Amino acid sequence: MGGFSGLPDKPADLIDYIREAYHRHGLRTLDRAGELLSSALIADGETCQELYEVGRLLERYRLLLCAHLTLQESVLFAEALRPDRSVAAAERIGESVRLDLAALAKITHDLRMITLEYTGLPRGCSDAAPLLSALRELEADGRRHLYVEREILVPLLRDDSAS
């Protein structure tokens, strides 16, 4: 995964970056996808039943993201920012991300199957292009988000706790 140079190298700064670049942005992107889904349903809901399955999967994504954010914001990040934190704080974040990545993979796999790899819907849907673009962005953002947490934040916290 490219494009990660220039990230903050202090745990507190990286956590602030993750909150803005991924947590808040992820919610905004998810909201935009939901609005586009509503527009597509209004235009083509009667002839494009797959849109309802997309809606169900977006709801699962929302639940996953909200659970992820709640755990991180209220417990894991607070623990990771304590001056006396242990390496175990980093391990708990890593385990949380590992589980969320597996759940995200299942949801995005199902979305890709329904939307023909984000290129269209089986029966066609006149208003689907903006929605498909938002779904692609949502998946890419989710993967980058979890990558930064797993591959950059967790090792940074481990190294910082060990010193």
Q: What do the pLDDT scores average to?
A: 89
Count of alpha/pi helices? 4
Low-pLDDT regions = none
Q: What is the helical fraction, as a range of percent?
A: over 70%
**Order of SSEs, N→C?**
HHHH
| Structural class by helix and strand composition | mainly alpha
Largest sheet: none
Q: Which range does the strand content fall in? A: under 5%
Give the count of structural domains: 1
Distance N to C terminus: 28 Å
Principal-axis shape: elongated
Radius of gyration: 18 Å
What's the β-strand tally? 0
Outline:
79% of the residues lie in helices and 0% in strands. With 163 residues, it is mainly α.
How would you describe this protein?
The structure is a single chain. It is built from four helices and no strands. With 163 residues, it is mostly helical. It has one domain (11-162). It starts with 10 loop residues before the first helix and ends with a helix. 31% of the residues are buried.
Main traits of this protein?
163 residues, mainly alpha, 4 helices
Question: How are the secondary structure elements laid out?
Answer:
Blueprint: H1 11-44, H2 50-80, H3 87-114, H4 128-162
Helix pairs in contact: 1-2, 1-4, 2-3, 3-4
